[in-house]
Amino acid sequence: MTVPLRRSRGGRATVETCFSRRSTPRPGGRRGPVPGHIAVILDGNRRWAKAAARESAWGYMQGGDRALQFLNWCDAAGIDVVTLYAVSLDNLRREDDSVIASLRAVAETLQQLARQPRWRIRLIGRIELLDTQIVEELREAVDLTAAVSGPTVNIALAYSGREEILQALRELLSTPGGITQAQAGLTQDMLARHLYTAGLPDPDLIIRTSGEQRLSDFMTWQSTYSELYFCDTGWPGFDERHFAQALDHFASCCRRYGQ
Ligand code: IPE
Ligand code: MG
Questions:
Q1: Is 61 in the pocket of ligand 1 (CB under 6 A)?
Q2: Domains and CATH numbers, the chain
Q3: Is the overall model pTM greater than 0.85, yes or no?
């Protein structure tokens, strides 16, 4: 059986091993491979607020400010793609007002980010399920950065990895000739072309804050070979030292892709 070689970001076929890593100097002078795509589960904002005896809305605003700083660190480190998981599809079932508070914080944060403008902003998830006024604000920020040629940030809202796979399959099957094509032999590449992340590399590193060690329906398809980094602080407390630790963790990983 012939197994296709993994495609590197440049489209070149490679088998990346511990002995052939991309070695780029990182801030602080350290060397080692740098993730091309970092995905983050921005967890623990409400608990952060609770510990400070503040409202959830305050925790989300702090988290938004942190996300702006985080993107600056990523930019300085040469990261090409960042995905930030802010609201899950399951979060929409929360009975308190935390979802609307977090969406407001996301909208304000994206407006600030769009003013720079350095990052190209994309929204991923079931955006159509969100409050229309907020969606309008979010789309404004996206449109302002549509022509930016810098790095890409995906903002995952009302996101579910399983739903993403289902919608990709529905989309694939509804394209002209899609069913016949799928019957003739459905491949991973065919499906991946219909994911929200089509054309982007899979996350090399996934970070989750707040001490929880699970993926919670995030990047279900794309996380197959992601390295995972968990840290105990709530998202608003994730500082530059945590960032450096996450990059060090990644640099120490031996990525063999099953080889
Ligand atoms: C964030 O959890 C949910 C996601 C990252 C999808 P919250 O920050 O809303 O709050 P707690 O502190 O975990 O409850
Ligand atoms: Mg949480």
A1: no
A2: 36-159+204-252 (3.40.1180.10), 162-195 (no CATH)
A3: yes
